[in-house]
Amino acid sequence: MRSGIQVLIKHPSFVHEYPFSMMYPFGVEVWFLNAFAMAMFTLILYCVNKMNPSEWRALAENGDVYEENADNFNLRNSSWFSMSTMFLQSYDASPRSHAGRVLTGFWWVFCLIMVFLYGLNLSPYMTAAKKAAFIRTAKDLLEQIQVNYGCVKEGSTYDFFKNSTDPDYQRVWGYISTAYPDPLVDFVSDGVRRVRESNGDYAFLAESAILKYEAYRKPCDLLITDGFITRSMYGFAVQAGSPLRDQLSYAIEKLYEDGTMDKLEQRWFDYNSDCERETLWERQGLYSLTAVDLQGVYYLMLIGVGCALMVYFIELLAFMLMPPSSTRRGKQVSDVRSKNVTQSEPILKPQAKWL
Fold first, then answer.
1. CA distance 118 to 26
2. Which of 152, 205, 312, 318 is the most buried if burial means most Cβ atoms within 10 Å?
């Protein structure tokens, strides 16, 4: 019988990660520093627009542009400009003075670096729950640090790692014998229960036949990773030099070839699964981003919609409670446009008629 040691983990679809793990690529202090940098840029851009004689406000006061252009970079619009450019979006107006353009240029460089650094570091945090599913060898087990792993104390897997002379297996033994908290369990059922209760932080090493029996039982929240930590075979012991050795070996090979051994294994080890067969999309979910992985993004969108609705109702309430405003601003805009038209076009005076 062919067997080996495999890894049992909690299925990534049942691992509950922090919904806003998308915030992890930057530390808390970096988020606060970025918010402070945006606030400082907004304030300085507002001051430049207000004081620089080459900016929109001064030009509007001189009548060179429409009066409404004076508010292109007031405090509110400057905030919107800094936020939109941070996400690499365009804006209707841009600073006219050299000081404002130098300031904006360096702000764009800052935003470009931050956006790309965030994007490059985001993927590992969004797929953290799936990393254990890619453990296939002892080397993979040793290279990861997110998942604690262990086996049954004094069991066959325990003895294999303890007595192995392979360097990788010796490192695995060194870990399971010294790790804290203790990764060893007393019974297989304890290891399976620990996997279920660990939320993806613990992996159980055992014989593949034992793991298949446990993984195919409800509530169907376990997964055996592909590959084997080590492969082994069980055989019949016969006397040295006995002709039965070759006869048994030949018969076993024939049983493997015609599928009899697989049927016997299925019958006596009861691999009939209580879980429904996974669909193609469910299997692909081990390697692609699912709704569980992106739940924080959807929550963020819902928060944005909620904030927008709240602001909308506040504005609506303020509009209903405040007295009707005069049309002075509309009349001012009309006067400025009339002034510009008057200055740019000659006035044609009617000629007198002699009777």
1. 7
2. 205
H-only helix segments in the chain: 28-51, 56-61, 75-86, 98-126, 138-143, 156-163, 167-178, 188-197, 208-215, 244-257, 260-269, 280-284, 295-321, 328-344
Maximum alpha-carbon separation in the chain: 145
Helix (H) or strand (E) holding 207: strand 202-207
Burial of 106 (C-beta count, 10 Å sphere; 0-12/13-18/19+) = exposed
Task: Give every CB contact of residue 195 below 8 A, 6+ residues apart in sequence.
Answer: 8, 9, 10, 202, 203, 204, 222
Closest CA to 188 of 216, 210, 161, 221: 210
Residues 109-139 have pLDDT tens digits of 999 999 999 999 998 888 877 888 888 888 8
Residues 292-312: tens digit of each pLDDT = 888 889 999 999 999 999 999
Residues 218-230 as b or e (16 or more Cβ within 10 Å = b) = eebebbbbeebbb
CB-based contacts of 130, cutoff 8 Å, min separation 6: 12, 286, 287, 293
Cβ atoms within 10 Å of 141's Cβ, excluding its own: 21
pTM of the model: 0.67
**Which are the contacts of 208, defined by CB distance < 8 A and separation ≥ 6?**
3, 4, 5, 6, 224, 228
User: How far apart, in whole angstroms, are the C-alpha atoms of residue 275 and residue 259?
Assistant: 24
As a three-state string, the secondary structure of 271-333 is: CCCCCCCCCHHHHHCCCCCCCCCCHHHHHHHHHHHHHHHHHHHHHHHHHHHCCCCCCHHHHHH
Asked if 2 contacts 202 with a C-beta cutoff of 8 angstroms, the reply is no
What are residue 207's phi and psi, to 5 degrees?
-65, 145
